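Notes from hallway chat w/ T.B., transcribed later so I don't forget. T.B. wanted the structure written out for a chain they're using in a teaching module, and asked if we could keep both sequence and structure tokens in one place. Agreed to drop them here.
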Amino acid sequence: MVGYYDLYQLGTVRETERMKGHRGLFPWHPATIRRMVVQGTFPAPMKLGRKNAWKAEVIWEYDKLVGMGVALAEAVVQAQAAAVRNRHDAA
């Protein structure tokens, strides 16, 4: 989903050993993000098929308001994706 974030990409999960190292764009658990949407303190997602997703622009605007560093995290994700593509193209 290019240009969109799903809940897994936004939230940080520390509940199980398998998910222990996952860092989302925000330091909140996905359930906290859902509660924030209901309370109106986090942007509402849109429906994409069976998933809920947030437009990247909406998340970046939210980041500007709260200053959590999503733009920096997005730059890191894009650099990692480019490195993977380059390795795949070289193989």
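Follow-up for T.B.: The first strand starts at residue 4 and ends at 6. Might be a good example for the class.
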